[in-house]
Amino acid sequence: MDKKIKKVAIDATMEAGELLLKKFKTFSRKEMVLKTKRDLVTKADLESEKAIIKRIKKEFPDHAILAEESGKNKKKSDYLWIIDPLDGTTNFSMHNPLWGVSIAVAYKNKVVFAVVNAPYLHEMYIAEEGQGAQMNSQDIMVSKIKPEKVLNTYCHGSKDKDIKRAVKYYVRQKMNGFDCRQLGAASLELAFVAAGRIESIAIPGANSWDVAAGILIVREAGGEVTDFKGKDWNLETGDMVASNGRVHDDLVNILKNI
Asked: Taking CA atoms, which of 61, 131, 180, 247 is between 20 and 30 Å from 54?
């Protein structure tokens, strides 16, 4: 993996994280703007994205970029940078510290490097294809928790059908398992799966910018990531479930029927 690419990805998430921390301390919910009836954006999202893209363009002007707020540029390249400048915007807006910056680098449509930065938590998650996953430079691995103590999380896309499936999944797991929660920041929830803090996250209608980086981190930490039918996740996949692997078959059996 190109050392320069890795450095730019890490530096960009750090720069964006510092910018967002300053905004977080004084943020007012009056600054929110609704993109749709369920999706909001803030100046913090836009400024973070602008800073990240500026850094990438300076070093790699010919690379393709897909960012949550500005979409995909028109560059044709084997390299694609996938950016969520502020994952967990709703959390951020209510001064909940579970939010972060997510950058994945794909080469020929395969994610090969990933960074998830949780500035308020002082945690930086990094993974490189075939090289394992780390949190603050320490190796991390998925959990070995027994089935009766499994902690599940979930999120969902903005479409009505995705929300309905998420609610159905939540009720199923909440009533029949140990617990199921929505933490509100998919990239961090994936990082938490990788670090062994929770056992799974399921997302009907996942967006690639929300999950691309976290998925590589989970896989490099020994976990498993598929769609709801058990097929390997890729950049074209919508529904996504990630787990420690030990509970994955059980999750797929539930999800493919919701």
From this structure: 131
